[in-house]
Amino acid sequence: MKYPSITELVLRDGQQSLIATRMRLSDMTPILSKLDNIGFSSLEVWGGATYDCCLRFLNEDPWKRLSVIKSNVKKTKLQMLLRGKNLVGYKKYDDSVIDLFIKESSKNGIDIFRIFDALNDINNILYSIECVNKYGSNSQGTISYTTSPIHNDKYWLKLAKDIEDAGAKSLGIKDMAGLLKPKTAYSLVKKLKKNLNIPIHLHTHATTGLADATNFKAFEAGVDNIDTSISSFSNLYAHTATESLISMIYDEDENPFNMNELAEISDYFQNIRNKYSKYEGSMKGVDIKMLINQVPGGMLSILEKQLFDINKLDKLDDLIKEIPEIRKDVGYIPLVTPTSQIIGAQALLNVLDNSRYKNLNKEFIDLVNGKYGKIPGEVNKSLLKIIDSKNYEETSTSLTVNDARLEFKKFCKDNSLKDLYNNNTDLLNYILFPKESKDFYNKSTSMSMNDLIELQEGFGFYLSD
Ligand code: CO
Fold first, then answer.
1. Which of 36, 249, 363, 464 is the most buried (most CB within 10 A)?
2. CATH of 290-388 among 3.40.50.300, 2.60.40.420, 1.10.472.90, 3.40.50.2300
């Protein structure tokens, strides 16, 4: 029997999905060596929303978090989630920034980079794969799974083959909304295993209640690696519980995992989760509407909160119906950060205006104009007409590393921050999140308790990847 290896997600996606990415480094360090001893193929610890949240809410340098984790995890590979050309942010960065970011991440301890693009545009991940290979880490090219009339087996196989040909060392199937059904997973994995030489990894969310069965069928089809999260940080918006998956696939006498140690780890994280209970989402069991309208749970909760804040909760049903309509108009793009935020914001405008596309978000115009990458299907003709008539202005491209260094140097001088600009990781913080970094560097020397509490209580920040 061939068993898949297991990636443990609690430190990144588990906590991102369940407590809005609020887990601190100090919550992680006491348990790192125990996690290291379990025998996971990797620990997902960084990237996605964690970078942003470190600076925005936790007053933490994300690079320090990475180096502390690295020094405590000696045996297990460290993994991060990278949003292709958007890195860990929400817009496209210059190639010089991508190169420096991957170089520093690799140097500071990331072994496996899971690289995806929200639109599944291979051109958006090619350069990252190249850089990861150049700096000697492991590049995992990823398909962002979705369902639509154009997303069929043929589409996925071609994309997967292109990813393998691009030099990726493994292929990730990333099902951020829990849409992958068990039988589909079985046939998809079988076909991928037949047509590809690189290992296949599966990442699915429990939101729709399908994840356990989907993971099990993928195991039966011979998938090489499955992502899970420790039981006290599992299910709901997150993933199959680590201990459950192990119990499903192994006969007792063949189980190489120490279930008692896993139980201790789970108990530890239960206490952590209790501390952050106010960041939990509202879903209690499973969200079956996801299978109908494909709105990721994280996206739904943030839209619900936005409607609540403006006293328009009665519009929620209209909003949920509008999202798939927009998705159809823009060629069935998958909903994952940043497209889920862009589509969500436009849906909100359409519903509040009581008129479709009367007002358009800048990012939405960019998306339709291909600024985020090639659209998988056809864009609705009348939508294209509306956008053409809006006098579209090209957004300026992001700064190069050299230009950004000059800007950062001035900021450091003005704020007596010595020579921070010579430090690549400080520079990257500044390039990726200028406003949050300015606050972070100005505050880190003189942060009062009040500032800290205010930061922690920032607006609930749910992202779906
Ligand atoms: Co995920």
1. 464
2. 1.10.472.90
pLDDT higher than 70, residue 435: yes
Residues of the chain with CATH 1.10.472.90: 290-388
Q: Report how far ligand 1's centroid is from the alpha carbon of 205 (Å).
A: 6
Cα(238) to centroid(ligand 1), Å = 7
Q: What is the pTM of this model?
A: 0.92
- Count of Cβ atoms closer than 10 Å to residue 370 Cβ: 12
Residues near ion ligand 1 (CB < 5 Å) are 13, 176
Residue 379 to residue 357: CA distance in whole angstroms: 14
Intervals of CATH 3.20.20.70 along the chain: 5-279
CA of residue 48 to ligand 1 center, whole Å:
9
Q: For residue 88, what are its two tokens? A: 């860990």
Looking at residue 423, the DSSP 8-state letter turns out to be S
Beta bridge partners of 457: none
Contacts for 78 with CB less than 8 Å, ≥ 6 apart: 42, 43, 45, 46, 66, 69, 70, 109, 110, 111, 112
Q: pLDDT (tens digit, 9 = 90+) per residue, 55-73?
A: 999 999 999 999 999 999 9
Tokens of 442: 């100005």
For domain 5-279, give the fold: TIM Barrel (3.20.20)
Specify whether the CB–CB gap between 238 and 205 falls below 8 A: yes
Helix/strand/coil for 465:
coil
